[in-house]
Amino acid sequence: FNIKNKALYNYFPCPAFVSALHLFVGALYGIMGWLLFPKGNGIFPERQLMPRDKLLGWRFQLQAACHGVGHTAVNFSYGAVAVSFTHTVKAMEPFVAAFISQTFFGKRVPFAVWLSLMPVVAGVALASAHELSFNWMGFNGAMFSNVAFAFRNYLAKEGLSDKLNSTNQYIHLSIISLLWCIPPIFMLEADKLLPAMQAAVASHGLWPFVFDLATVGLTYHLYNQLCFNAIEAFDRPLTASVGNVAKRCFVIGFSILYFGNAITPQTAAGTVVAILGVFLYSLVSAREKAKGEGKGGAAAQAA
Known about the structure:
Elements: H1 2-9, H2 15-36, H3 52-55, H4 58-80, H5 83-90, H6 93-105, H7 111-130, H8 136-159, H9 166-188, H10 193-204, H11 206-233, H12 237-259, H13 265-302
C-alpha cells in the first residue's frame, strides 16, 4: 500500500480525494461482503451490524471523524515528503497518545514510560533536522494524524461494542469516516481535481490510472483490516506493539530501496533511534501494565 500510494501521488497530487477513495473502496468491499455472504465464508466473517444507538452516538461519530481527518492528514504527508520520513514522524504516536491520555483524560502515565519515550522524541528531532525531503506540510500532516489517531484509539478502546468482531468494526468505521473525508475535497482540491485527473490520464492512460486508484484503495483497506485483526488476535499488547515496530522498519527500509531516496547519516541515525525508542516504550509499557494488574489482584485478594 505505502509504495503504490506514494507512486500514485507522484503523478496525481490530490491527497484529499485519494484519502476519501481509500475509505470508499474499503466501505464498498465491506458492504459487498455483507450482501453476498451474510453468513460469512473463508474471507468475510458473518455480518454483524452495530446497534443504532452506538452507530449514531457521539462517541463513535467522534471516533470516525478522528479516523477520517487523521487519514486525510497523513496522506498529505505522504504526498509531500518521502514515505520513510512520514513513518519516522509517525513513530511519535505513542508519545502523543501518552500526552493526550494524561492531559485530556486524566490517565496517569508512569514516569518510566515517559523516560522510554525520550529516544523517540530525540530520534524524530534528529531525523527531521537533516531530512532532505523535509517540508512543513509533510511534518505537520504526520503529526496532526498522530493527534487524531491518538484520540481515535482512546475512543475505540472505551466505546466499541464487544458484540462486533474487528472486521465488522472496521467496516462500520470506514463507512462513517468516508463522510468526514468528503468536505476536505471541496475545501482543498475543488479547483485542481479535474485538471489533475486529466493530466494523470494523459500521462498514464485511463485504465492504468483507474487501476492504480482501485489498487491503493483495496490495499489500504486490507492493510488496515489486517492490523485490526492482529490486535484482536494477539492476547498480549506487547506482541502487537512488536509487530507494529517490525512493520514500520520494513516500510521505511523498503520504501528507501524502492524509490531510491537519498538520506543523510543523521536522518538514518534518527530513524533508527526513534524506532528503537518505540520498541523500548513497548517493553516498559507492558511491564508497567503487568505491575498495575499485579497490584490490583493483590488488593482484591486482601479485600
